[in-house]
Specification:
4 copies of one chain form a homotetramer. Helices cover 40% and strands 18% of the residues of chain A. The first copy, chain A, has one domain: Ribonucleoside hydrolase-like (Inosine-uridine Nucleoside N-ribohydrolase, Chain A, Alpha-Beta Complex). In chain A, helix 1 crosses helix 12, helix 5 packs across helix 7 and helix 9 packs antiparallel against helix 10. Bound molecules: calcium ion (4 copies). Chains A, B, C, D: It comes from Georgenia thermotolerans.
Amino acid sequence: MTLRLIHDVDTAQDDAFALLIGMRHPNSNVEAVTVNYGNVNFDQMVENTLYTIEVAGFGGKIPVYEGCRLPLIAPFDDSSYVHGVDGFGGANFPKAKQRPESENAVAALIRLINENPGEFTIIAQAPLTNLACAVAADRSIAGKVKDLFIMGGTNNAVGNVTAAAEANFWHDPEAAKIVLNAGFPVTLVTWDLTMTQGRFNEAQLRQIDALDTPQSRFFTKANRASVEYVKKTHGVEGSTHPDSIAAAIAVEPAIVKKATDYYVDIETHGSIAQGYMLVDAVRRSGHEPNARVVEEIDQELFFQTMLKVLS
Amino acid sequence: MTLRLIHDVDTAQDDAFALLIGMRHPNSNVEAVTVNYGNVNFDQMVENTLYTIEVAGFGGKIPVYEGCRLPLIAPFDDSSYVHGVDGFGGANFPKAKQRPESENAVAALIRLINENPGEFTIIAQAPLTNLACAVAADRSIAGKVKDLFIMGGTNNAVGNVTAAAEANFWHDPEAAKIVLNAGFPVTLVTWDLTMTQGRFNEAQLRQIDALDTPQSRFFTKANRASVEYVKKTHGVEGSTHPDSIAAAIAVEPAIVKKATDYYVDIETHGSIAQGYMLVDAVRRSGHEPNARVVEEIDQELFFQTMLKVLS
Amino acid sequence: MTLRLIHDVDTAQDDAFALLIGMRHPNSNVEAVTVNYGNVNFDQMVENTLYTIEVAGFGGKIPVYEGCRLPLIAPFDDSSYVHGVDGFGGANFPKAKQRPESENAVAALIRLINENPGEFTIIAQAPLTNLACAVAADRSIAGKVKDLFIMGGTNNAVGNVTAAAEANFWHDPEAAKIVLNAGFPVTLVTWDLTMTQGRFNEAQLRQIDALDTPQSRFFTKANRASVEYVKKTHGVEGSTHPDSIAAAIAVEPAIVKKATDYYVDIETHGSIAQGYMLVDAVRRSGHEPNARVVEEIDQELFFQTMLKVLS
Amino acid sequence: MTLRLIHDVDTAQDDAFALLIGMRHPNSNVEAVTVNYGNVNFDQMVENTLYTIEVAGFGGKIPVYEGCRLPLIAPFDDSSYVHGVDGFGGANFPKAKQRPESENAVAALIRLINENPGEFTIIAQAPLTNLACAVAADRSIAGKVKDLFIMGGTNNAVGNVTAAAEANFWHDPEAAKIVLNAGFPVTLVTWDLTMTQGRFNEAQLRQIDALDTPQSRFFTKANRASVEYVKKTHGVEGSTHPDSIAAAIAVEPAIVKKATDYYVDIETHGSIAQGYMLVDAVRRSGHEPNARVVEEIDQELFFQTMLKVLS
Ligand SMILES: [Ca+2]
Ligand SMILES: [Ca+2]
Ligand SMILES: [Ca+2]
Ligand SMILES: [Ca+2]
């Protein structure tokens, strides 16, 4: 049975690759993409999304909805310093023909999920503001989603924006808290999993480049700035693929080798731990688990999944 | 020029009277009503809203949209203890013929305001969750609203749910913070203004009763529980009409005798002051005013406005 | 029976006058003064304290202990902008002969109260850090103090440092919370009481000046900057005497015309209401009263009390 | 040069062993012990401390001062569930002859450090309330301490009381924040270091038992409840020795194989991360390091150090 996907994105490099997985993997179709603020300038991310759809050969076939341009409450600066001004490392891709829909992303999420109860799998690759607004407006959608894969947070490990917090949840802690506590069937891909198991090394990046397809050429070009940033900032070789893991485990569940159900929650009142995700690994909170946290992946199968969609 | 109104409500007694003002005052038409959780059971409030529309003679003519059933983050219990289980003091009114729309209230707010930029005046009579979701999803609507009248908060005075906070803002501090900082043209009617200048005394209530119209009979019946609660809890005679003031000053601006522009903001991290509204009367915050706070009203004109719509 | 007083001070103008009341009123003796950071430079405040003791004729007879130079956690800037760099409006008084003790103020408070259980009345005229450290170190002292008069907070009214908070509690909210919840027999003199009932008008200031005693000359000189600041900032004539009220009602209880027992607490987690004092006038907290809040004073008797100690 | 030690303790099992290290290791003398609330009933911990001193052969020679019986602000329940009611697993040891001093622990810390500037090394094995009060009362003592070894917090790893927080810092986050930011020369032994490298396995515990000295018999008896608790709760064999590591690295610095300077701070406003220690391993805070965090120890040398003091 083919997965019906909605991607919620802030399209810079890895968001685009996650979209490629959703669009081009045989197990899934992407039926809508909702854009949330995040990595770079909002309008640029809309263009990046439309261009990625075009590269994948789906131009004009997958509606793109524009959503939240700011966090609920937190102040906001985008992360262009990580991804280059255009989110694709200055690749300067051409403008796609497809234009975004006029319906708001939050309204679209509410409508689509209600019209197709139990059908959609959502890949949440950005701060969770679109999803938070949607589920706050209509609490029933949490129970009408088949699966919600979220890239965000850390599992009792060091963060990236601060030692306490990962970027997606740090940008909008209130939204993350709303979504994680709303009753969605959540699977979490955390930042530390990405750092330890979600990287492609240089040999793998060369293997991708050698495919020499439109998709692989797009990958190589778009990925360049990220490789440099990760090397400089985190001192590691290769590139990190947090969003792609989230998409890949949705379409290829065997990638997950270990996942544990935990109670998770987000710090929204923090002075220094704002956006911190508590993963109750010590079972002291008294709360039942509300998320499945991926703790180990089959890295080779993940890479093969990427190769497949880029071929 | 006739005002085009949207009421955002949690319909118990005074919400209904505010709706009557909007619907029946010659200066205004109500074009939509959005329902937010608040005073009593959500579905009951939808019924209360539909019934109020019917009583006013507009049954089937004003669409009612169902919105947020819970605050963004705060835990929630309704305020049935104030308003009786049905929000009308157990009046047991019949069920209206009109049914709510299928479109979600948040989606409707985004759509209506975008389709009619600069046109709508909104009367916000409930916790601000619907409006917060709408403006978070589409930041542009703040600049496309003609006026936003909000009942909520206190102006450096004691609250009602706690000493620090008034009910509407206490129920969803995050939503209140979002809305007050979104750039809407806000006019605030605070709880302390209601307590000092927004009450009808027993003579006035008898005068209303003596009108003996369908609307006045509805008023008297629906108002009963509130009179008793206010007497018992706040030790004051008569009934309080916070939402009605907000509606009345929208349709009859001369009711406002004094209003001051202040910077206002909401405490969302409080341990004991959660939901507190800061009204920067000492001008120490360094922020420009973002709200017009009503500080004195013409009580007689307010009462005459109510009499007019009940006649 | 003569009151045995300890003053906890941050000696600028009004602190000095409060000390004069304690030292020179026939109902009281001052046995110790503990200095806390606050109004101006710490060492200057120690000098101000010593000089005030000398002016009052008690040089060498009342030990002065140096305590906390910073709040527990909050960052700190002193309030020289209110009081002039020296806290006495640049009066440039000579240096007193008496020097401070070597024992720390917190250690001294613990020792003195334990050695004299049930004996001391404390007049707390500064941020509450000294007292907080003392009672945290030895919880038993709360029950060994006869009375604790505190100048701080607001009673459901606008503050001075921010709209939410009064200076003494704003400087160290954690300390204020510790002290108010420690079980001391607390009487509170709030900022709003000071503003409405604790000012001397210009005629009264002239009457003080006309006394022409060393104390009245000191008063006039030291008070000058405060008069100008209050006029400029709060737009009111005369000078405000928060600390003096606290001292005056200790030595002359008839000054209090109305006081009510309330549960009070301090906001220590606030984003905008940091240092706010909740005064539970609506009795919604479920907590028993822990402070007597002065709500009305006999202004003439207060002035006469000041005249007496300056004569 | 012999280290001059002050231990700040909440004496249950491992606190006692840490005291044994301080007292009996040839590199150190213990000159004072200050008792802070924590593991079990306060008076019991005073007795445990006095008994431990007696067992070590120092009865009557090391003054014991009683300090804080409650956290600054946080509510408090002791941890008897971990350590047995008496903190020694119900060992029912006899009462020591030595009695505590009358001087308060906070006053004693201020006095001792000021009288011996640059001399004392402090081993902080309990919630940091005593030290926080002392340094808040006299900020200068932070610069007059030779070294401050603290057991507390986690280094980007899961906690014990909650997933976010370790017990000592969770009990009094405000105190921990005060001490870590006061300018002391801090070395931190974190909970995760204890769990991974600070345990004695069953063979080691048998080796200790086989020493058959008064100290080893005391160790075995007092340690019993802890072994059982750790097995049940954390699912690990052997016993954990957080406080002993802190004492051991003070007297035997070679035990530290890796330590890194980080900026650390404590969450005091948290809704779910209260007491969390941020260890800025990603260097994103912009703050200079304020603590040396031990990241790897020589486990065999640690064990040999314990064997030595028990022999
Ligand atoms: Ca992303
Ligand atoms: Ca209402
Ligand atoms: Ca003062
Ligand atoms: Ca300990």
